[in-house]
């Protein structure tokens, strides 16, 4: 694919949704654009504000937190996997407070508790803690939310 066509396609892709540099680079390589040309295209996309790491990180965190229920640990790991810088990750995570993350975890655990098959407190607690860890919430927050939730449901505690 020639440089102009690749630039045009990449810009159109960035116009439709926020993209990160690593995803665009991978697409350019799939389109058989050389590494030097890919660097040129990415630099131009950045100059013309089609690519912006901070904007991408904020959108990613916003969507994955609100719609997928991901916690800060999982969000950080996924953004690092996409080679987003630490400053952009921190700024994106800071758009939500610790209380926002806690409230989200509490809601997720309430729903999960309904589907926990074991009525035995120890097994229910373990299942809920595993679930919270899989969603990317830290151990302290998870333990406190599970403890609070199980004490609210006296038949399980």
Could you walk me through the main structural features you see in this protein, from its secondary elements to its overall organization?
With 157 residues, this protein is mostly helical. The chain folds into 3 domains: 3-47; 53-93; 98-156. The protein has 9 helices and no strands. The chain has helices at residues 3-16, 21-30, 35-47, 53-68, 72-81, 86-93, 98-115, 121-134, 139-152. Helix 8 (121-134) packs antiparallel against helix 9 (139-152). The longest helix has 18 residues, at 98-115.
Short structural summary:
The protein has helices at 3-16, 21-30, 35-47, 53-68, 72-81, 86-93, 98-115, 121-134, 139-152. It is an all-alpha fold and 157 residues long. It has 3 domains: 3-47; 53-93; 98-156.
Question: Topology of this structure?
Answer:
Elements (H helix, E strand, L loop, with lengths): L2 H14 L4 H10 L4 H13 L5 H16 L3 H10 L4 H8 L4 H18 L5 H14 L4 H14 L5
Helix pairs in contact: 1-3, 2-3, 4-6, 5-6, 7-8, 7-9, 8-9
- The number of distinct β-strands equals 0
Largest sheet data = none
Helix segment tally? 9
Shape: elongated
Give the averaged pLDDT, no decimals: 94
Radius of gyration: 21 Å
Could you give the distance between the termini?
Answer: 63 Å
Domain unit count: 3
Low-confidence stretches: none
Helix content: over 70%
State the secondary-structure class. mainly alpha
Secondary-structure element string: HHHHHHHHH
Measured by DSSP, the beta-strand proportion falls in under 5%
